[in-house]
Amino acid sequence: MDEAGAASVAVVSWDRLWPDRQGSKLDVSDWLELVPDATVKALRSAASNWRTVCQETGELPSVILPDPGTRQVSDFAKELGDLLSDAPIFSKGGIPVVVNYEWYTLEPMTGRRFVGWVERYATMVKSKEGISSLTLDTASTVLEQDEFLSRIRPIERLNQVRQPVMEEGKVRLLGKVMIGQASADVRHGAV
User: Fold this and answer.
1) pTM: predicted TM-score of the whole model, two decimal places
2) Average of per-residue pLDDT across 108-119
3) Can you give the residue ranges of every domain in the chain?
4) For residues 18 and 9, what is the distance between their CA atoms, to the nearest angstrom?
């Protein structure tokens, strides 16, 4: 694969693949019906491993770890929640969850998993010692903080079936999407 992540590019003629649907609009779910399972798994894996980087420097943002006498856990949880507000971690009933893209299910985010997972999105820094990792205790504590949970996106469920939506007087089917509290999440299929 090159830097853009594409091993190859193919141009597909929709009319040839679906002669009965000529001229109709197709979406990603239609495309996924044609793609081999191995390709879909590779795409899902790539999507679950994306990293947030600073536009100016190309580096991950740094977050100072909580430390007695210098930084409270609640301040750390707020900053981390703000940083991860667009990351693929969600709050379901006060429990942080992530999507299992293989089974299309929601799984609780554990402290053990969070220790390494969060390093895709931020560099943890001890105030005097430099780069570090979250401890299991700090990770578990942050995942239970209201300051953290209120900043990540809420989710109610994963849809296994395409859902109808009304747009401009016409009904169309969404792809498999997560349903959050905001209707904008539903329309845009936010992940």
Assistant:
1) 0.61
2) 96
3) 62-155
4) 20
